[in-house]
Write a structure and sequence with these properties.
Layout: E1 2-5, H1 8-11, E2 29-36, E3 39-46, H2 50-68, H3 76-82, E4 89-90, H4 93-108, H5 118-124, H6 136-142, E5 152-154, E6 159-161, H7 175-189, E7 194-199, E8 202-206, E9 215-220, E10 229-235, E11 238-243, E12 248-252, E13 255-258, E14 273-280, H8 283-296, H9 298-306, E15 312-317, E16 321-324, E17 332-334, E18 340-341
Parallel strand pairs: 16-18
Antiparallel strand pairs: 1-12, 2-3, 3-7, 4-6, 5-6, 7-8, 8-11, 9-10, 10-17, 11-14, 12-13, 14-15, 15-16
Helix pairs in contact: 2-7, 4-8, 7-8, 8-9
């Protein structure tokens, strides 16, 4: 058995193309990188107050991880899961907001995005040294615990209650998006007008690059290991999040099992897609939507995206066809002839 998991930041190439050296007293560059929320994170910002802003961003990112990680017994999410079937848990404004947002996307997608998938995620453990293929009976036993409609929220008291023992929340499909938005807000509050935030492939850009041009972000080739991109997106003041089966996976007996699980079956979603990139203004939305569209499939996914304001998508299927929504097509350049941009 071979286990493979490489962080999204290595697969989704946040490629800043053609950025020269750009420094002055008022426009110095500050950058910082750390491993947080299970992935490699880097922020590059430009401006007089950029060093202070970037430092404060990472303090905030650590705070969000401490509250929302499912990998610590002390986090708010862990406490909610431990108290399932027992009592409601009071949480921070941060955690309540993200859970509330996750449940909205669960409803919007008919449960294809479901933050209560944690009991099944815990079975597979994809992305850890304990990754394995669960027995069908194990999955069947956990599926009744996956139901976003059962989560009880009290907006006044800021409490969260899971009514059945064994239920659990996993915010892995949305928390990094929230973190990127919070980092962006801190940079803006410090007067930073040019920045690139890369939270393990959750990309958030402010303004233009140091050459006063659009930031150029490469979309990773889903069939190559690293640093190979099939297209470039030129963006300003936007966020991009990509989901795909290549991000984290488990290979057993030549069968590949990726980490995007279908809440209805408990198995990896099989929709014929290789990659989904969402472009919008809020990273929390892009994060949830990239997973949602991958789980929905191309037709239902595009229908969802086209129903939403100021949201664009680039979808790659297993026939190497690229489908881009109307609002992003002019900013997309295909760089690999193996892939075809569909009309």
């Amino acid at each position: 058995m071979r286990r493979n998991f490489i962080w999204l930041s290595l697969f989704f190439l946040a490629l800043v193309i053609g950025v020269g050296i750009w420094r002055s007293a008022d426009n110095r560059e500050a950058s910082q990188a750390e491993f947080l929320m299970g992935t490699y994170m880097e922020i590059r910002a430009f401006g007089r107050r950029a060093p202070t802003a970037v430092e404060r961003c990472f303090v905030r990112l650590q705070e969000i991880e401490d509250r929302m990680t499912a990998n610590s017994l002390d986090s708010e999410i862990a406490t909610i899961n431990q108290k399932a079937g027992q009592e409601a848990v009071t949480v921070s404004e941060d955690t309540f907001f993200v859970i509330e947002k996750a449940l909205r996307y669960a409803e919007l997608t008919g449960g294809k995005f479901d933050p209560t998938i944690q009991p099944v995620v815990k079975l597979w453990q994809i992305g850890t040294d304990e990754a394995r293929v669960p027995a069908p009976a194990e999955i069947e036993a956990k599926l009744p615990l996956v139901d976003y409609r059962a989560v009880e929220l009290d907006a006044t008291q800021k409490t969260v209650y899971l009514p059945q023992a064994g239920m659990g929340l996993d915010l892995g499909g949305i928390a990094k998006g929230y973190a990127a938005d919070e980092a962006g807000a801190i940079l803006k509050a410090h007067g930073v007008k040019k920045a690139l935030i890369n939270l393990g492939g959750n990309i958030y850009v402010l303004g233009t690059n140091p050459n006063n041009e659009s930031w150029k972000i490469g979309i990773q080739d889903p069939e190559e290991e690293r640093n190979q991109y099939i297209a470039i997106l030129a963006v300003q003041d936007a966020t991009l999040v990509t989901s795909g089966p290549y991000e984290r996976f488990l290979e057993v007996d030549d069968q590949v099992y990726h980490h995007i699980l279908d809440p209805a079956t408990g198995y990896p979603a099989d929709t014929g897609l290789l990659s989904v990139t969402i472009v919008t203004t809020k990273s929390i939305d892009a994060d949830a939507l990239s997973t949602s569209v991958f789980a929905l499939g191309r037709e239902a996914g595009l229908e969802l995206i086209n129903s939403l304001a100021e949201v664009e998508a680039v979808i790659i299927d297993d026939e190497y066809r690229v489908f881009a929504t109307a609002g992003i097509r002019q900013q997309l350049t295909i760089t690999d002839p193996k892939y075809t941009l569909m009309p």
